[in-house]
Design goal:
The chain is mainly alpha-helical. It contains 14 helices and no strands. The chain has one domain: MetI-like (MetI-like fold, Orthogonal Bundle). Helix 4 packs across helix 12 and helix 5 runs antiparallel to helix 8.
């Protein structure tokens, strides 16, 4: 634990991410506070392209909705998509990577081929094609779709670590005590891989959130979800910059920068802490 605290990038990333998550989780309370008894997400809540005031710190959009309320609501939606897709993709990556690397042989060859195939398949065109036929998907459904394309990177990273762990002494001892493959994987290997699994989760979450934002910005994502990408698309299509309504861009972009920046710092911090090569380069 002391080693983790000494990593400034990791600590800063965790603090920023925790703050962003708390803001997103409190989006309902923030909306109630902004609305003062009214729904700030309702069309006509305020004037069209209203300027920032004490009551509306970021002003209102082209429909009169409060931009700050839209931003925190969109942030929470993006966080939930990243969390669901990250968990699902990490679980898929764990199952495939652990069994492939531990068992080896033909199973490893088949699963490695499947992973490599998903890695080279361009995910964005497939996501565009799917969302073109499914506009009314739910939050969980879009998370599943994004998870399908987010797991290969995590699986490759996890597999490389399992290959080095399966020859350790405690694994041989577990085999002697007659533990089966599933027990060895989840009782011996997984606990020793928790830092790398957290790293894989962070990478998968980043990929899922970025994928949804990319779809929304080009106008091909689900239109029934208010997320950060949809807000940027709305700002572009309404000509917000031309009209001087810069907060409509600034709110979502600042939220995205904080979110991606914190996850990237956590990623770098975990890698520096648990990657022996990086520790030697840094002299620690």
């Amino acid at each position: 634990m002391a080693k983790l605290v000494q990593r400034k990038k990791l600590v800063v990333g965790i603090v920023v991410l925790t703050t962003v998550v708390l803001i997103g989780a409190l989006s309902g309370q923030i909306d109630s506070l902004i609305g003062n008894g009214q729904n700030p997400l309702q069309v006509g809540f305020g004037p069209r392209f209203g300027h920032p005031t004490w009551a509306d710190p970021l002003g209102t959009d082209e429909y009169g909705r409060d931009i700050l309320a839209l931003t925190v609501t969109g942030l929470w939606t993006s966080l939930k998509v990243g969390f669901y897709a990250g968990i699902l993709s990490t679980v898929i990556g764990i199952v495939i990577a652990f069994f492939a690397a531990y068992k080896g042989g033909a199973l490893d060859a088949v699963l490695r081929t499947v992973t490599d195939t998903f890695l080279v398949v361009p995910s964005l065109p497939l996501l565009i094609a799917f969302t073109g036929f499914a506009k009314s998907v739910t939050l969980f459904e879009i998370s599943i779709i994004l998870a399908v394309f987010s797991w290969p990177g995590a699986a490759r990273a996890i597999r490389s670590q399992v290959l080095s762990l399966r020859t350790r002494g405690y694994v041989d001892l577990a085999k002697v005590t007659k533990l089966n493959t599933v027990e060895i994987i989840f009782e011996e290997l997984v606990p020793n891989m928790l830092p790398y699994l957290a790293l894989g989760l962070a990478l998968s979450a980043i990929g899922a959130i970025f994928g949804l934002i990319s779809l929304e910005i080009i106008g091909l994502g689900p239109t029934n979800l208010i997320d950060l990408g949809l807000l940027i698309n709305s700002a572009i299509s309404s000509g917000a910059l031309t009209l001087g309504a810069w907060p409509l861009f600034a709110g979502p972009i600042v939220a995205i920068v904080l979110l991606f920046g914190s996850l990237s710092l956590i990623n770098i911090g975990l890698d520096e802490t648990f990657n022996p090569r990086l520790r030697r380069v840094a002299g620690v």
